[in-house]
Amino acid sequence: MERYDPHEIEARWQAVWAAERIFEVPNPRPGEDTSRLMYVLEMLPYPSGELHMGHVKNYTMGDVVTLYRRRNGYRVMHPMGYDAFGLPAENAAIRSGKHPAVSTRENIDAIRVQMKRMGWSIDWTRELSTSEPDYYRWTQWIFLRLFDAGLAYRKNAAVKWCPNDLTVLANEQVIDGHCERCGALVESKNLEQWFFKITDYAQRLLDDLAGVRWPERVVTMQRNWIGRSEGAQVVFRAQHDPAIELPVFTTRPDTLFGATFFVIAPEHPLALELARGTEHEAEVADYVRRTGALSAVERAGEKQKTGVFTGRHVVNPVNDEGIPVWVADYVLMEYGTGAIMAVPAHDERDFEFARTYDLPVRRVVVPRDGEAGDDAAYTAHSEHEVLVNSGAFDGLAADEGKRAVIEWLRSEGRGEGRVAFRLRDWLLSRQRYWGCPIPIVHCDGCGVVPVPDDQLPVVLPEVEDYAPRGRSPLAAAEDWVNVACPRCGGPGRRETDTMDTFVDSSWYFLRYADPHNANAPFDRAIVDMWLPVDQYIGGIEHAILHLMYARFFTKALYDLGYVGFTEPFADLFTQGMIHYKGAKMSKSKGNIIRPDEFIERYGADTTRLYTLFLGPPDQDAEWQDGGVAGQHRFLARLWRLVNETVDRHGSGIERSAPADGAGGDLVRKAHRTIEKVTGDIGQRFSFNTAQSAVHELVSEIHEAEAASGQQLRFACAIAVSLIHPYAPHIACELWQRLGGERLWDEPWPQADASLLVADTVTYAVQVNGKLRGQVDVAVGAEKEAVLAAARAVPNVAAHIDGAAVVKEIVVPGRLVNLVVREG
RNA sequence: GCCCGGGUGGCGGAGUUGGUAGACGCGGCCGACUUAAAAUCGGCUUCUCCGAUACGGAGAGCGUGAGUUCGAGUCUCACCCCGGGCACCA
């Protein structure tokens, strides 16, 4: 018998699949049945290098689902593309010294070869790359539709700036005050930038999380990121000039009577103005300057809160009391109104500040029964707390008080109920070269002018020097920048910033459905047929960024009538990372496992098997060098068994076999394995245990020497059929050797329910909960018969001897527990 | 600080509605085949103890401590450790 030679088999079958075009899934034609369409999608890779093991795990998972669903009668779209614009690709290009367009294309070519070698069932006719003009033309088109709708706009704002990558960043790309990509400490800058008005969608982004089947932790992370708070906006006015309004947002309107001072952020536009003319003017100016130079991390890291008095007071609208206005950097300009009423008795931060500057503390909420101490803020506010020192509101429970105060403020025109979100608008412009050009022309006369649709795409110009300099490298391409204003024909200048890469990836899943459309990004009827994506699979690192942006785009496109659904991804599976030598694989740590080396050594099938055998797919897993050999041994054993079976007993695909004679147990095991694997792949996404089940079946085939040829051929066919989604090459080969053809078209095997149980079942017998023996009983035996058999087990008899059995528990098919009391 | 995951043999892990903890794989030990090695095949492999005749039996054991239950890895409470998210968000 020839040895298992994965390379020969894999190359041959990949050629067959390509020739038969079995991965190509065309869109249904009018009138065709669309009830069994399914869209399986994995997050597309950045072509900043070759694929790593994380990709292999991700795409193999998607492939298992795809192959499994296809054999269950679904028409599955399984596309692939490249998130080719952006910092990763550009930085890789800078490192290699090649132009990003060149290095990106080279990387894509290399990745495509790797993907084909893995045998993933990707429909290559739908392949796309976000850096190609026929794709980004439509990214620009969508940008313009959002611009028309007022959802893309320019504003001058304090923005996050990465001093290393020399570009602005979105809030979502700042982790702990550091750049998400390079780790540099992020600075704050005042710049005019482009934003998407994602905040308009905050409530819907929150509400619609209820309708998706996503991992709970991802939903929670998005909820936290959106950060909805209910409260009130309350208008305070300057005591020296009631025309100056200073609104605050508070979640605790019930504590308004406890406000003993007022704080505004150093960046607040009124900070300097308020202090003007007071003896504190110079001090305030100095403080604003000093804190402005600090990063958010430095501010938050300060041991003690700092601030200065402005010399001014504001009037508390509930009691007309004047309270001092301070400037302090513990108040953030970006949230709420940039100003707060300080209630030290009931807010930890205000309390700390009041202690530092010796400001008064006035308690207005007390526990209904019991005392609140004086050495900390008392922050509870439920039905168990009551208001005091609060005028007409005294005696109300805190939660009622909140409503009552809001109602009073509203009726007096001094405030109103308000909801605040943590979510900020998405800053989309970048001062980098390798990105999608923003299709806008600036004209002295007309202002910001969109490039007309018929002039798209605005092609990214070739420039020699694309290194980041803090302003877009595109600005240097004078010929490109200087252009006639599309509106008035006068001199105009193109927008030179490019788009954040996340814009490109916020709609790619739509383009796959209609990838060659030259007249529109996609046809609505076609995307509505395929989407939302039935199963999306990708890394947890995109829990907020990509997944939030894609949801926003989908909702905006829905509102504009371009798609008929509001959520892009119905089901999401987030995979864990693969670690190696105790750390996540990274080039800098030098603990990379290159997939190519494994394919070279063991073949694609073994590599596919092992990445899914590591552990539960949603959890991080440790790569073990030796583990791969086990999967290879398994395939070699399967190979040998099938070939031996055919040699000894002849070929022929058996779709059933009698569960009697010497091989009866084997046949039953095959049915149980179908049941187990089907549930594990189809329902549980438990890819590791599905494999274990096939291992067990193969071991039993190996041991079932006395089984009939039909029984052996049946068991082999089931093993081969079940392992096909994991190891399609060897499975197709062995299926053919067994006498079949086109395993990929073979319906998924069905377990015969009557064969899932054996004639007898082994009961565990416990005495007082301790295992004392086992006994085989006929399936379906009466409770009394089971008990009698259990009592007859010698070791059990010894343990109940001389004691009174006070309780008998029989769990059908599982165990007996005899409860005895010592006699 | 708040919110999620997770903690089970030497290792990765299984244990799906509370019902025989350790499936499957790695590693290790012993044996077969071989001049030898590799490959392959067979056996053993949670710990401690007892008795060793097939191998049997006793006790302990799933981060710690309580609890509910005939019975807890699984449920409840309190706590410890690891990983992740959010965090001066008013």
Key words describing this protein structure:
823 residues, four-stranded parallel sheet, seven-stranded mixed sheet, RNA-binding, alpha+beta
The total strand number stands at 34
Strand content: 15-25%
Largest sheet: 7 strands, mixed
Task: Please estimate the helix content.
Answer: 25-40%
| SS-based class | alpha+beta
Detail the poorly predicted runs: none
Mean pLDDT: 90
Alpha plus pi helix count: 26
Terminal Cα span: 67 Å
In one word, what is the shape?
globular
Radius of gyration: 34 Å
Can you describe this structure?
The chain has 823 residues and is an alpha+beta fold. It is 36% helix and 20% strand. It contains 26 helices and 34 strands. A hairpin with a 2-residue loop joins strand 7 (174-175) and strand 8 (178-179). The longest helix is centred in the C-terminal third of the chain and has 23 residues, at 627-649. It is globular. The two termini are 67 Å apart. The chain binds one RNA strand of 90 nucleotides through helix 7, strand 11, strand 15, helix 11 and strand 30.
